[in-house]
């Protein structure tokens, strides 16, 4: 059974151009780690008036927590997060960065979904 996830975080205004530039060419190792963790259809949207980044993805595996831990253990992903975390501000009190005990991105509740005809 698949799961859809939506997360938000604040983008520091001074980092907007750099954030978009780095995401125009995401490192292949980072994408491979996501793929190994059964993550598909991943996108990040930017809403400048609130400096908001909105990420959505579909998880198609059977062990979400385990697969997310594998992503966090990936060395290339850890290096990526060292770059991107500095461009962001978490909404979660006590968050210190991606891959730590306290989540960096905030998961938001889905309140509506229309699948339409497949």
UniProtKB/TrEMBL annotation:
InterPro entries linked: Dimeric_a/b-barrel, Rham/fucose_mutarotase
GO MF annotation, one: racemase and epimerase activity, acting on carbohydrates and derivatives
A Pfam family of this chain: rhaM
Superkingdom field: Eukaryota
PANTHER family xref list: L-RHAMNOSE MUTAROTASE
Protein name: Rhamnose mutarotase
Biological source species: Tricholomella constricta
């Amino acid at each position: 059974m698949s799961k859809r996830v939506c997360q938000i975080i604040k983008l520091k205004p001074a980092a907007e151009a750099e954030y978009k530039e780095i995401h125009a060419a995401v490192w292949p190792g980072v994408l491979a780690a996501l793929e190994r963790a059964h993550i598909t259809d991943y996108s990040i949207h930017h809403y400048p008036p609130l400096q908001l980044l909105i990420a959505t993805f579909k998880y198609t595996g059977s062990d979400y927590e385990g697969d997310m831990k594998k992503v966090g253990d990936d060395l290339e992903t850890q290096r990526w997060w060292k770059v991107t975390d500095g461009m962001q501000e978490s909404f979660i009190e006590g968050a210190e960065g991606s891959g730590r005990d306290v989540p960096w991105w905030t998961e938001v509740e889905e309140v509506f979904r229309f699948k339409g005809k497949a």
